[in-house]
Amino acid sequence: MNKSEKETIAIGKCFNRSRLNEDDMNTIKDLGASGLLDHGLNENQIRQVMLWCQHECQREWAQSKYKPSEFTPSNDLKNQGLQDVYTNYPKSPYNDLAMRGFRA
């Protein structure tokens, strides 16, 4: 499957509101608004694709962030304090998407 077919499939998944895998999300993020415009989408369609990609990025981030094993009480967690525990989590992908113009 070539690059344009992967891009078309990723865009179709966004319109269908299907789950995107990491490759699909990266494909859409790499395209950006101008790349989606080259695929023949209008402004409203571009916004819909971008918002769905953002939704899926945040879903992936949230699912990877909250793992049950990390919340088991232990002496180490009690001594560290909550602030240290929360600073070790991965950063939100929203910051990366905001810089690319996904949502204002």
Describe this structure in words.
The protein is mainly α and 104 residues long. The protein has one domain. The chain has six helices and no strands. The protein has helices at residues 3-16, 22-38, 43-65, 75-80, 82-87, 94-99. The mean pLDDT is 77.
Question: What's a quick, concise take on this entry?
Answer:
The protein has 104 residues and is mostly helical. The protein is built from 6 helices and no strands.
Spell out the blueprint of helices and strands.
Layout: H1 3-16, H2 22-38, H3 43-65, H4 75-80, H5 82-87, H6 94-99
Helix pairs in contact: 1-2, 2-3
Tags for this model:
globular, 104 residues, mainly alpha, 0% strand
* Uncertain spans: none
Q: Which structural class fits the helix and strand makeup?
A: mainly alpha
Report the principal-axis shape.
globular
Q: Mean pLDDT, nearest integer?
A: 77
